[in-house]
Amino acid sequence: MGKKEKQSKMDVGEAQEQGTFHLKPSTGEPSLNSEEWPLLLKNFDKMNVRTNHYTPLPEGCSPLKREIRNYISSGYFNLDKPANPSSHEVSGCLIVCIDRTTRLAKSQQGAGKEYICIFKLHNPVESEKKIKQALEKLTGALFQRPPLISAVKRQVKCESGTYVRTICVHLGLILGVGGQMQELRRNRSGITDEHDELVTLHDVLDAQYVLDHHKASFRVHSFKDETYMRKIVRPLEALLVQHKRIIVKDSSVNAICYGAKILLPGVLRYDDGIEVGQEIVIVSTKGEAICIAIAQMTTSTMASTDHGVVAKSKRVIMERDVYGRKWGLGPVASKKKQMIKDGLLDKFGKPNANTPANWKVVDYSATKVEATVEESANEDVSSPKAKKKKKKSKKESTSSSSDSE
Question: Which H or E element spans position 365?
């Protein structure tokens, strides 16, 4: 106790005598530990950096800080399904997507499922070794035709369309004693398993009741108690944590929501190991999932070029106009908008009776039509039939000229 009291009562003079306290110059970069960052921003400091310069916009927010209505509409929960609804035999993990999250349902269907099955054999087996040998025969690609002494529990990983009940019947036939499935539980669906915040239907009902009827107070204000609902509902970004990521600037978010391609000048950071044709997720600087996209460049290509299409969007997740529009802000576009407002152009931006004579507008649709007509004409001339017709017309013209002479 005496030593501790002396250390706690040490005055400033004694502390200065024991050592020097100042910041020393160093060339080392400050370390930022982002392992505890949530969802799609986890370990973002380990991503490849293209640039750190961008203009942050006030729109958008972190997935965990969304207003409760948007939080629920862009969330899902991992339901511990009872044995009866929709599938009478299976219980366990079932991903229930809410509203906007249904756009990600197909991405989880291809991620595989895992089941635990309990089945019974009609007669005893000589040894456990025979059961293991029979299970090895049933491992791999199978052809299936869809359908009481020792009980066995086994764990099965399979793709969609697999009948675990049929596997149990086949196992009984291989062992020569017959068998049937008694219980089936799904312990993994997609990237979620039964240890990943599994909830029951009673939890969902209670969370809705608490949200509607209970109120929490902070200082003077009182508001709805959202803690229970936020605990069982998870943001949709949690379903995409295993995808490769590309973080883009805030100014390009809304253009992507309207279907624009992801171009390299709008990229801030990107993961290692991205391959052409791979399914990736496009992320905002606040960690929001913008869309699922198909990569058009590898990681090495992004690092060695300064322009081009990085990815094409496959499924847009974010709603339009969450972020502001950042296209059509140039001098010509601004002047065109003002002329439409003043009635000097029609509502489509094309000239009308009031348009000034000095206004020049490029009709890109007309130029495209002219280009296609020219191309078709060139193709007709270059074809062999066109050449023969041209030769015949030349011969006819020469013969007519000789007759006239």
Answer: helix 364-382
Burial of 385 (0-12, 13-18, 19+ CB in 10 A): exposed
Judge whether 354 lies within some domain.
yes
Q: What is the DSSP string of 341-404?
A: HHTSB-TTS-B-TT--TT-----HHHHHHHHHHHHHHHHHHHSHHHHHHHHHHHHHHHHHHHHH
Name the phi and psi angles at 4, rounded to 5. -65, -40
How far apart CA 383 and CA 211 sit, in angstroms, is: 74
Task: Find tokens 């969902």 and name the residue.
Answer: 204
Q: How many CA atoms lie within 13 A of 351 on its CB side?
A: 10
Is 253 part of any domain?
no
Structure confidence by residue, pLDDT tens digits, 44-93 = 888 888 888 888 888 888 888 888 899 999 999 988 888 766 566 678 88
Identify whether the C-beta of residue 345 lies closer than 8 Å to the C-beta of residue 336.
yes
> Which residue reads 């948007």 in tokens?
70
Q: Map tokens 């020219």 to a residue.
A: 374
Predicted TM-score (pTM) of this structure: 0.67
Phi-psi bin for 354: left (phi > 0), alpha (psi -120 to 50), beta?
Answer: alpha
Tally of domains in the chain: 1
Of 268, 264, 348, 321, residue with least CA distance to 298: 264
SS3 157: strand
In a domain, 276, yes or no: no
